[in-house]
Amino acid sequence: MKIRYFETRKGRIELIPMIDVMFFLLVFFMILTLRMIPDQGMHMALPQSTTAKTLPRPKILVDLSRSGAIRIRGIVLTGAALEQDLAAQAARKPEVTIAAAKNVPFQDFVRVMDSCRKAGITGVGIATQPQA
Question: Which contiguous run of DSSP H or E holds residue 49?
């Protein structure tokens, strides 16, 4: 039996492990960037409160504008669509913060609170600004 030390073998590039690694990196960075994007909400003149305190970032931020438009994650929803969206997330027991503009009619605010209650969400906060 002859031993060949300097035998040349043709190199192979294995693609399947490389695809697995690239897919893992893609999923890792997608999940990481989704957690880094904050839900900013809309810029509104919020009501002021002397007892306002800083709360942790809410899981769901509902913006209620003066015209009565309801927004979640920048998407305008109707009252029924809001209730469906919240009901879909109710199993995770999310914390909802309602950011209503200063001059929003109280009935619109109550309508959003009713949607939260109908969806089964109990952790509801109200966004205010500290009084100067």
Answer: strand 48-49
Query: Tell me: the pLDDT tens digits for 88-112?
Result: 887 787 888 888 887 888 888 888 8
- Kindly report, residue by residue over 36-50, the tens digit of the pLDDT: 666 555 555 566 666
Question: If you write DSSP's letter for every residue of 71-124 in order, what string do you get?
Answer: EETTEEE-HHHHHHHHHHHGGG---EEEEE-TT--HHHHHHHHHHHHHHT---E
DSSP 47: P
Task: Please report whether residue 43 resides in a domain.
Answer: no
Q: What is the CATH number of the domain that holds 124?
A: 3.30.420.270
Is 12 part of a structural domain of the chain? Answer: no
